[in-house]
Amino acid sequence: AQGVPARPYDGERIALTRAEVIMVPNVPPRGLTVRPLERADAEAIAAWRYEGPWDVYNFRPGELLSAEAGYQAVADETGTLVGFVCVGQEARVPGLAEAEGTVDIGVGMRPDLVGQGLGRAFGAAVLAHVAGWCGETPLRAAIQSWNQRSLRMARGLGFREVGSHRCVQDGSEVSYTVLVRPARAAAAAGS
Q1: pLDDT value at position 108?
Q2: Apex CA 157: angle with CA 97 and CA 122, to 5°?
């Protein structure tokens, strides 16, 4: 990415500018909630099939997410599964070390909803939920560097690029852009 050093993220804290504080949504969109992941959710997610380059996000046969591993479901107002979220170790890509004082976050949205302009509302609902238990802790995400759509969504939700990470997955080298969403707007406004 332009202007971003190609170095691993070292956990350094960054502050939001006043303009960024204003653009970061603090209220979840109506209708989307995060709830416990049930086995039926995990089975549905395992059957999702993404097209084109996004097929790297398809699950292997027999691979299931679990609530015990930290996964939660994101549902609409009717209870229909629209995506999932995970935090902590499960959200970390292979070889990316834990950054003290930062919570790793990962998300996935149902393939038929991707590209429909729902990413920001989806992300805002997830961030509002995660903020309920991690408070002012900065959040870190690793997004495959070619995935400009997800990178735009993350930037729109207040994440900033802080470095890059490369690893081998399924026999291929994969490049990730590492982003951090600094401590919530209230803390940033005071700095």
Answers
A1: 94
A2: 95
8 A C-beta contact, residue 139 and residue 175: no
At a CB cut-off of 8 Å and minimum separation 6, what does 105 contact?
85, 86, 87, 91, 126, 130, 139, 140, 141
Helical spans, DSSP H, in 102-177: 119-134, 148-156
CA distances from 165 to 30, 75, 146, 162, 178 (A): 35, 31, 13, 10, 7
Which residue is associated with the tokens 């350094």?
Answer: 12
Which has the minimum average pLDDT: 81-95, 120-134, 152-166, 176-190?
176-190
Q: Which amino acid is it at 81?
A: L
- pLDDT for 10 equals 45
Rg (CA), the chain: 16
Q: What is the mean pLDDT of residues 1-16?
A: 41
CA atoms of 19 and 137, how far apart (whole Å): 20
This prediction's pTM: 0.78
In the DSSP assignment, the letter for residue 79 is -
